[in-house]
Amino acid sequence: MTADAVYADPSALLKLYRMEVESRAFAQWRFRNPEPMPLTLHGELEIVNAIELFLHRKALTTAEARAATQSFEEDLAGGRYRREDPGWRAVMRRSKGLTLAHTAGIGTRTLDVLHVASALELGLRHFLTFDERQSALAVRAGLKLVTIPVR
Questions:
Q1: For residue 146, what are the contacts with CB-CB under 8 A and spacing of at least 6?
Q2: What are the tens digits of pLDDT across the range 45-64?
Q3: How much is the pTM?
Q4: Which of 18, 16, 17 is nearest to 26 (CA)?
Q5: How far apart, in whole angstroms, are the C-alpha atoms of residue 100 and residue 120?
Q6: Which CATH code, of 2.60.120.10, 2.60.40.420, 3.40.50.1010, 1.10.260.40, is assigned to 6-145?
Protein backbone atom coordinates (compact mmCIF):
# COMPACT_ATOMS: atom_id res chain seq x y z
CA MET A 1 0.00 0.00 0.00
CA THR A 2 1.29 3.44 -0.85
CA ALA A 3 0.88 6.58 1.21
CA ASP A 4 -1.04 8.01 -1.76
CA ALA A 5 -3.90 5.56 -1.18
CA VAL A 6 -7.07 7.25 0.04
CA TYR A 7 -8.72 6.24 3.31
CA ALA A 8 -12.44 6.81 2.86
CA ASP A 9 -14.65 7.03 5.88
CA PRO A 10 -17.26 4.24 5.74
CA SER A 11 -20.08 6.78 5.82
CA ALA A 12 -18.67 8.09 2.54
CA LEU A 13 -18.29 4.58 1.10
CA LEU A 14 -21.89 3.87 2.05
CA LYS A 15 -22.94 6.42 -0.57
CA LEU A 16 -21.96 3.83 -3.19
CA TYR A 17 -24.56 1.41 -1.81
CA ARG A 18 -27.43 3.72 -0.85
CA MET A 19 -28.60 6.77 -2.79
CA GLU A 20 -27.72 9.96 -0.95
CA VAL A 21 -27.07 13.54 -2.03
CA GLU A 22 -23.36 12.88 -2.61
CA SER A 23 -23.78 9.44 -4.19
CA ARG A 24 -23.55 10.45 -7.83
CA ALA A 25 -20.48 12.66 -7.40
CA PHE A 26 -18.73 10.04 -5.28
CA ALA A 27 -19.55 7.24 -7.75
CA GLN A 28 -18.07 9.34 -10.57
CA TRP A 29 -14.95 10.02 -8.50
CA ARG A 30 -14.66 6.31 -7.69
CA PHE A 31 -14.96 5.42 -11.38
CA ARG A 32 -12.02 7.76 -12.13
CA ASN A 33 -10.07 6.36 -9.15
CA PRO A 34 -10.54 2.58 -9.38
CA GLU A 35 -7.54 1.44 -7.34
CA PRO A 36 -8.40 -0.70 -4.31
CA MET A 37 -9.17 1.40 -1.26
CA PRO A 38 -7.96 0.41 2.20
CA LEU A 39 -10.73 -0.83 4.47
CA THR A 40 -10.40 -1.83 8.11
CA LEU A 41 -12.47 -4.49 9.78
CA HIS A 42 -14.33 -1.85 11.79
CA GLY A 43 -14.98 0.07 8.56
CA GLU A 44 -16.43 -3.06 6.99
CA LEU A 45 -18.63 -3.60 10.03
CA GLU A 46 -19.76 0.03 9.97
CA ILE A 47 -20.96 -0.26 6.36
CA VAL A 48 -22.87 -3.50 6.94
CA ASN A 49 -24.37 -2.20 10.20
CA ALA A 50 -25.44 1.06 8.54
CA ILE A 51 -27.29 -0.84 5.81
CA GLU A 52 -29.10 -2.90 8.47
CA LEU A 53 -29.85 0.26 10.45
CA PHE A 54 -31.39 1.87 7.34
CA LEU A 55 -33.54 -1.24 7.01
CA HIS A 56 -34.58 -0.97 10.66
CA ARG A 57 -35.51 2.70 10.18
CA LYS A 58 -37.40 1.81 7.00
CA ALA A 59 -35.09 4.03 4.95
CA LEU A 60 -34.42 0.96 2.78
CA THR A 61 -36.70 -1.91 1.83
CA THR A 62 -35.56 -5.45 2.52
CA ALA A 63 -34.81 -5.91 -1.18
CA GLU A 64 -32.79 -2.66 -1.30
CA ALA A 65 -30.83 -3.59 1.82
CA ARG A 66 -30.00 -7.05 0.51
CA ALA A 67 -28.96 -5.59 -2.85
CA ALA A 68 -26.75 -3.01 -1.10
CA THR A 69 -25.10 -5.68 1.06
CA GLN A 70 -24.60 -7.96 -1.94
CA SER A 71 -23.05 -5.14 -3.98
CA PHE A 72 -20.69 -4.31 -1.10
CA GLU A 73 -19.71 -7.98 -0.69
CA GLU A 74 -19.09 -8.25 -4.44
CA ASP A 75 -16.84 -5.18 -4.29
CA LEU A 76 -14.91 -6.76 -1.40
CA ALA A 77 -14.53 -10.06 -3.28
CA GLY A 78 -13.69 -8.25 -6.51
CA GLY A 79 -10.75 -6.35 -5.04
CA ARG A 80 -12.23 -2.85 -4.99
CA TYR A 81 -11.17 -2.75 -1.34
CA ARG A 82 -8.01 -3.95 0.34
CA ARG A 83 -8.54 -5.20 3.87
CA GLU A 84 -6.02 -3.59 6.20
CA ASP A 85 -5.16 -4.12 9.85
CA PRO A 86 -3.79 -0.88 11.29
CA GLY A 87 -2.92 -2.49 14.65
CA TRP A 88 -5.67 -1.94 17.19
CA ARG A 89 -3.53 -1.08 20.18
CA ALA A 90 -1.77 1.64 18.19
CA VAL A 91 -5.09 2.91 16.82
CA MET A 92 -6.57 3.11 20.31
CA ARG A 93 -3.53 4.95 21.67
CA ARG A 94 -3.56 7.38 18.77
CA SER A 95 -7.33 7.82 19.06
CA LYS A 96 -7.00 8.75 22.72
CA GLY A 97 -4.37 11.34 21.86
CA LEU A 98 -6.51 12.79 19.07
CA THR A 99 -9.50 12.85 21.40
CA LEU A 100 -7.66 14.69 24.14
CA ALA A 101 -6.18 17.16 21.66
CA HIS A 102 -9.24 17.88 19.51
CA THR A 103 -12.63 16.47 20.51
CA ALA A 104 -13.54 19.24 22.97
CA GLY A 105 -12.94 21.85 20.27
CA ILE A 106 -14.36 20.02 17.25
CA GLY A 107 -16.97 17.70 18.74
CA THR A 108 -15.85 14.53 16.95
CA ARG A 109 -17.47 11.18 17.63
CA THR A 110 -15.55 8.06 18.63
CA LEU A 111 -15.89 6.25 15.27
CA ASP A 112 -14.73 9.38 13.44
CA VAL A 113 -11.64 9.53 15.63
CA LEU A 114 -10.98 5.81 15.10
CA HIS A 115 -11.04 6.24 11.32
CA VAL A 116 -8.64 9.20 11.35
CA ALA A 117 -6.32 7.28 13.69
CA SER A 118 -6.54 4.20 11.44
CA ALA A 119 -5.52 6.23 8.40
CA LEU A 120 -2.55 7.62 10.31
CA GLU A 121 -1.50 4.20 11.62
CA LEU A 122 -1.69 2.80 8.08
CA GLY A 123 0.74 5.52 6.99
CA LEU A 124 -1.76 7.16 4.66
CA ARG A 125 -1.79 10.84 3.78
CA HIS A 126 -5.18 11.24 2.09
CA PHE A 127 -8.59 11.10 3.75
CA LEU A 128 -12.07 11.28 2.25
CA THR A 129 -15.19 12.13 4.21
CA PHE A 130 -18.29 14.25 3.80
CA ASP A 131 -18.45 14.93 7.55
CA GLU A 132 -17.35 18.44 8.60
CA ARG A 133 -16.10 17.53 12.06
CA GLN A 134 -14.20 14.51 10.82
CA SER A 135 -12.71 16.68 8.06
CA ALA A 136 -11.53 19.18 10.65
CA LEU A 137 -9.96 16.40 12.72
CA ALA A 138 -8.26 14.85 9.68
CA VAL A 139 -6.72 18.21 8.74
CA ARG A 140 -5.58 18.91 12.30
CA ALA A 141 -4.03 15.43 12.39
CA GLY A 142 -2.01 16.24 9.26
CA LEU A 143 -4.04 14.38 6.62
CA LYS A 144 -4.86 15.90 3.24
CA LEU A 145 -8.55 15.94 2.43
CA VAL A 146 -9.84 14.53 -0.82
CA THR A 147 -12.74 16.77 -1.74
CA ILE A 148 -15.48 15.80 -4.13
CA PRO A 149 -17.64 18.66 -5.38
CA VAL A 150 -21.32 17.78 -5.10
CA ARG A 151 -23.52 19.41 -7.67
A1: 6, 8, 126, 127, 128
A2: 999 999 999 999 999 999 99
A3: 0.94
A4: 16
A5: 16
A6: 3.40.50.1010
